[in-house]
Amino acid sequence: MTFNAHRIHYDLPYTQEVEKYPGLVVHGPLQATLLMRAAVRERGRTPKYFDFRGVHPMFAGNPCEIAMEAEDAVLSLWTGQDGHQCMQATAIWADAQ
């Protein structure tokens, strides 16, 4: 648990009226967790290195995707929504060159 209690994650009127987002924002560390799980599922084991970075907000209630590209022992992953990459991640396993 990250203890991120920012209102954009649970208070829709605040999110829309104050922050001017169209909807509740999906928690970044939740997206990172989904990407880590996708990496482990893809390779069958936990990576030695995992890094993530939020680049665009993802909004609750809208379809989203998880995508990845592999090159040797490195896996690039991202969440996407409405043509935007939302969270980017890199997973590297010990056998990376």
Q: Can you describe what's shown?
A:
It is a single chain. With 97 residues, the protein is α+β, with helices and mostly antiparallel strands. The chain has a domain at 27-92: Roll (Thiol Ester Dehydrase, Chain A), CATH 3.10.129.10. The protein has helices spanning 12-17, 28-43, and strands spanning 49-54, 65-71, 74-81, 84-92. A hairpin with a 2-residue loop joins strand 3 (74-81) and strand 4 (84-92). It is elongated.
List the total number of helices: 2
The low-confidence runs, each spanning 5 or more residues with pLDDT under 50, are none
Biggest sheet: strands side by side, in what order?
1-4-3-2
Quickly name the level 1 CATH class of one domain. Alpha Beta
CATH T-level topology of one domain: Thiol Ester Dehydrase, Chain A
